[in-house]
User: What shape does this take?
Amino acid sequence: MTTLSSRLEPLLAKTRTVCFGRFVMQVPSTAVVVYGPAEVETPIRYFQGQADKVAEHLSARLAEIENERRFLLKTDIPRLPLFGKVIDGVKSGQKIVFGSKDQVGYAVYSFIPVGKDLFVQYIDSIPPDEEIVNSFNAIASHLRPRAQDEIPAEPGSCIEGGFIPLEKEYERATVGIRLQEFPDVHISVDVHKNQESLADRSSPSLLREQAKQAAEGDGLGVVFARAKILRQGALQLEGWKGEEMALVTPAYKDDKAVHEFRFHSAGAVRDSLQPEIDIRLDSGVKDNRKAHVNPSISDEEALALWDKLIRTIRVRQPSDATPTMAATRQTPIGSVVRTGEICPQTGWWECTESKSTDRSAKRLLRAGEPAPLAQLDSKSGLWQRFFGERQRHMPAVWKLVGFDDQNV
Assistant: This one.
């Protein structure tokens, strides 16, 4: 491990925990966290503060679908009977719409308002006879809002603005770290759950060999040979056995000599806690272009920063959970919400109906979820008493009586 320079010491003296997928890492407290593509079974996107814009997003998608209609043949219509259809999802305000981008299967989009935010889950091609609505509904019913620095206690996937306490066949999370003190240095982490096989085509040494062959084929072998390898070899990182390569790429024409570090591990088969992982550090980045400016850090500082950050990546534990209840008590005790309305505050909510049963009189409701029906006592007739039908579910008013960490 390289010692920290006088410039890195204050940067790394104070850190905060970032949650992505099922993992956490420590980053400088001044760092900007940028969430990239996320998937829980299928891709899902986040639109902050746009829960009230479902109709606008839906309208835009329907306009695209009408454009897609022009490419359908008459024989396609019977195969795609749901084309252009909009149905309600399981969550209040959720809309699911069907189109087709390839004229072979459906392109299905699910618009999910959660609290003040909007999530859009989608798949661009799925066979007409393959089920997707139930999967979308399952995710929508469990998806809840999450502040950027909130670390959930239970298993599940952290995505930008949200948390999904489920385990699915396919999961992916990506996160980027931007350093205000060194704006040209970009760090990224990409984890995705393997299926039945492992990908070995992404090892740094293999990619470097392919790049070498391409450079030699273009007559640039001499330029490629000027790259300086700072470190290379096998590396054990938390639960991953992988390969590390840290090098300085050579200057060429307008491109500067910059740092290009990478760690890759194929992970394990069908293991959400040991997915394929790809970690990168690039210096000299400006306007999302690599090798555009001279690096702001030295070789020794780049290695030290790399070592310090990547070794903090690990599986999230219950002990990592943040005390979110005390920090986010924005809804006062005594506030009410009606069945079907979005719950504004995670906590204990009590049904105000006097005839509610003990089992449903008080429930733990989570922010972003619709308030449920209440189970009420019912005046039973002869036949209802005979068959044991003494209860019914009815719309109700729920009152906030306590937060999750209180004994109420």
Notes: Residues 42-137 form one domain. The mean pLDDT is 89.
